[in-house]
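Below is how a single chain appears once it has passed through the pipeline. First comes the sequence as given, then the structure the pipeline wrote out for it. We keep one example in the README because the format questions we get most often are answered faster by looking than by reading.
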Amino acid sequence: MKKSQIRIDYALIIAMVALAGQLYAQKMTNKGEAGNKPVSDSLPTRTLSQVTVKGVKPVVVESLPEVYGTYLMGGKRSEVIKLADVDANVAEKTPRQVFARIPGVFVYDMDGTGNQINIATRGLDPHRSWENNIRQNGVITNSDMYGYPASHYSAPMESIERVEFVRGTASLQYGAQFGGMLNYVTKRADSTRRFGFETVNSVGSYGLLSTYNAIGGRVGKWTYYAYYYRRHSDGYRQNSRSDAEAQLGRLHYQANERLGITAEVGRSTYTYQIPGPLTDAMFAQDPRQSTRSRNYFNPDIYVPSIKVDWQLSDRTRLLWTTSAVLGARNSVQLDAFATVPDTINRATGQYRARQVDIDNFHSYTTEVRLMHQYQLGNVNATAAAGVQLISTDLHRRQQGAGTTASDFDLTLTSPFRRDLHFRTKNLAAFAESQFHLTNRLTVSPGIRIENGQTEMRGTITYYQPENLPTDISHKFALLGVNAQYRINDAVKVYGGWAQAYRPVIFKDIIPTSVYERIDKNLKDAYGYNAEVGIEGRWQGLHLNLTVFDLLYRNRLGTLLLTNTDGTNYIFRTNIGDSRSTGVEALIEAQLLRTEKILISGFTSTAYNNARYLNGQVSAGTENRTVKGNQVESAPRWTSRNGVTARYGSASLTLQYSYVSETFSDALNTPTASANGAVGPVPSYALVDLNGTWRIGRQLTLRGSVNNLLNKQYFTKRPTFYPGPGVWPSDGRSAVLTVGLTI
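Resulting structure:
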């Protein structure tokens, strides 16, 4: 038996003995009263001291169980982080703190503090986390899986109870994404009460003000929960103001002990004033300066859903989820390099007209999942199978001429030059079975069949109509297998291999000028995830070590080709393959424990060698090979390390983060260009200080000093939105959060 269990058992024994003594004393008192003889005359009285049993976990990260709802997670690497267990800046949902204990997470700071989470692992693209299957309470929130898989929906971190992350080897069940599934599980109503209320309010540097207010409870068979959220920030840089709102409503009806129905709708929106890219010289001079004052970005996304959760029998469970992602992605901006100033024309006395772009999302998903426990001979098994139907229509209107004003205004002064629809219908069927070959060994083979078609239709004013229509077929039979062996109760070995693919998305097939052509035989990216690891949990120690291999074929890019008349043109096509291999390691340990103080630490470190196996891209007047080059935005080393001190109900965490150098382009251009669009992204190291103090069950105080040493850094040079160049991340800031539950 573990020492902590022994301590708890002793305390429980003492408490039980004390309670027995009290009951015995009461019994004797009653007996004495019945016999008209006070018990105090024959039994001495004694005041018992209060017994309190306390437990604090030095280990934070949990793993999903082998069977989780209608999902099979045995043999896959998974992490579960409860936000109540970590010290982090929830008001601005700082990803390097929230995901600190998930090794290998690369964070792309892009959209202003607190607006968006942009992460990736294993050498994938972090833009709006679009290499991941993003979910909220198990419901897909990616805007359009086939047209624009970015997750513009961005719920406040105050609303999140825990974060679940599963690597790509589980992709046969939840979707074909290389990066894995990231599920944000929101807080729930206290079902023991008819009404409850929570408010979380924050104030911080650069004009940060936010408020989150939620109600919930249970009345009979009905359980309800709803929140309203607002946040304002003036931003670290000039002209980087943002205003955000979010709402959610959930209603659950428990018809009987086996059948439950949940209806939910969530919304998130923000308007971000985009400060514009910088050159390297500008960044060195003053990273807080701005090159734009009239650029804005505004997503407004709704995610409605309804779930039917039916326990058909003791062995069979059915989950039917129907959901949608509806809304818009709007922007108005002067889209140009940092070296192009946004100034007033002396002749007209006005600014240049801005470019207006509007995306409208209409994404619908229905999925039926069935989990069934059965026996095959003497082998116990659990099967998970289902069907998923996705229908999407992304209406993209771009390059409309906007006004010369300076506010957020989507008014057009001339029509859009691009007016396109990107429609997809995709049917997927999947099945996986987990066989318990022994009481220690499980093996889980599976398959996912994808069958879909995407059609692009519409008009581009500068492009020949007959060259525009593009049809893309998505037909795959994806295979995978996972296995897990428990050496003992504390240690398990796991591993797996699963195929994955990434559809050709909208931006990949839109010609930017008359000098571009699109390959009509474009292929979806295709490859696999493989991993093998060991996880151990002992008293005060948690170790999870994984070796991985990710193959990514058919990467997209541009080549320079020549017409029959000798003129050149840009050809958008599949340009090569890449491979990421490396190690992900998490160690959490108890360093010191006394009666009142607990000191624990963690290191979350990953090494990733992401390289091009083959391929070439256009460079000026020629095509150059990229074989052996480092994949863009894929750091070799990512390491986050922290020490947490706990005293009573208060805790303080000091965190150190390091990210090694990356490159912005496949050519690995070693020197930054004059406009800042291409070049290396230097390594950076950051220190954060976060604290939490829980005063009883009702009041919580959180405090953060982010980027304590005021490091000036940037994480990426984007090639498209929000514009090529250097995008500085935030310097030192402080946030204070007060939460009250009644």
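The helical segments are 3-34, 95-98, 171-174, 280-285.

See the next section for the split statistics.
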